[in-house]
Amino acid sequence: MGTALDENGAPAEREMQPVADRSQLDPETRLRIEQAVLDIFSEREFHRVGLIEVARGANVSLQTIYKYYGSKEALLFSSLDTWMGKLGTRMIDHLQGIEDYKERFRKVFWVSLDFFERNPKVMQLVMSSVYLNTWRKQETFQNPELFGTFIRVLGEGRAKGVLNDQVDEKILLDYIFGVMFRLVQMYFHRGQRESLTKQANVLFEMLWRALSKPT
Q1: What is the topology classification, in CATH, of domain 22-72?
Q2: In this structure, how many other beta carbons lie within 10 angstroms of the beta carbon of residue 84?
Q3: 199 confidence band (pLDDT: 50, 70, 90)
Q4: Are 149 and 108 in contact (CB under 8 A)?
Q5: CA distances from 38 to 32, 94, 168 (A)
Q6: Residue range 77-211, CATH number
């Protein structure tokens, strides 16, 4: 029996459970796949991207994609998790040696803005292809490198008595991400006219007033 084709004459996509441990995938191959995902999904909506495009962009077989990822959703969110993990790693690196809590929090905020300015396709991918209701159902949604770092810094602030303790830490996290992601999204939407990192201190002080413990 021949391979089923879609309306464009390409092999029809099908959802499969990955049959191989993704950690066993050759690192260079995985890097090419993740870069292809970033390049393609940042340009078009999720439903307009075919896995065959990603396979061609990464110079791998469609069989390799199915073998290690199983579906388009798993491929997208696994790649996004890698990029979010890189942001988390950068935060941890930049926090080394900073003792003052407010300055630690300021650095976390600055690193986040700087990361998206340096990696615009990551936010463009989120804007064009990520559906939150689908993302939150993925195992990778609770990215420990990224969200764990934020939660740890928030926990330190509450323990020191400098952050609002009238709401749960997750609410504070919602405030941070709500402000930060909106800033970055509109930065790209408005044509990247003025660097966010150059305004980071002013933007941070505005956020700090919202999160700090009332006196």
Answers
A1: Arc Repressor Mutant, subunit A (1.10.10)
A2: 20
A3: very high
A4: yes
A5: 10, 25, 34
A6: 1.10.357.10
Section 209-213 average pLDDT: 92
In order of 12, 41, 78, 118, 166, the CA distances from 15 in angstroms are: 10, 18, 15, 33, 45
C-alpha 165/C-alpha 37 separation (Å) is: 40
Q: How far apart are CA 175 and CA 129, in angstroms?
A: 23
Site of tokens 């999904």? 41
Confidence of residue 204 (pLDDT cuts 50, 70, 90): very high
| The two structure tokens encoding residue 120 | 């615009």
Give the count of beta carbons closer than 10 Å to the beta carbon of residue 152: 16
Indicate the Cα dihedral angle 106, 116, 197, 132, nearest 10°. -60
Segments in 60-199 forming alpha helices (H): 62-68, 72-95, 101-118, 120-129, 132-135, 144-159, 169-189
Domain residue ranges of the chain, discontinuous segments joined by +? 22-72, 77-211
Quick check: 99 pLDDT over 90? no
**Residue pair 76/37 in contact by the 8 Å Cβ criterion:** yes
